[in-house]
Amino acid sequence: MTADGVTNKPPHGSHRRRAALWLIGLPSFFVLFMFLPAGTWVWAKGWLFLFILLVVVSAIFLVLRRVNPEVIVARSRFHQGTKSWDKILLSLYFPAMSAVVLVAALDDGRFHWYPIPWWVCGVGYALLLVGIGIVTWAEGVNKFFEVTVRIQTDRGHAVIDSGPYAIVRHPGYVGGILHALGMALALGSLWALIPATFASTVLIVRTRWEDQTLQEELIGYKDYATRVRHKLIPGLW
Question: pTM of the predicted model, to two decimals?
Fold first, then answer.
């Protein structure tokens, strides 16, 4: 927001560049981590996953550009002020998520260690899409939804208590856990649940540490925590 109270919106050209990078970068990533380890281009579950992911990512981009374009820019890079412990957690999380794809490719695409039926893949897609939906919902209502954990004093950081944040304090991590587990099953691999579970554990640790940080450093968060009592699972934690 400028000094005269006018909100600065990211230019449409910036949005188009980011969309192009996603649409080029995602297929490149999955070619590297899926089809090369699978040892074949004829991997039906891999192609189905890639197609569905591209459709979903494109739809998410269009939705966020309409309802909360600021979050697209905010999530496009790391920002100064990121907590040092979060850098360590992310250095564990991102490789674990990449390993989900890699292990699934080796399992279902190349070695067929433990074949699973298509209906299990269907369960995986259900978890995956619900997880992505929750994350997108959180991004849609929270302009402070960045990649890293920090107090965003440069952006007027404030508590968000609408949408999924009225149910749990960290809905993005709920979606992230479902995303990780669902991705392993959607790709047809029980072995890929191992790195997916590790990535989910990192998110649970991050939930606790981020919540402590917000309670200590973000004005109004303690009051919010008394209203919305649970971090991830209503009625449990």
Answer: 0.88
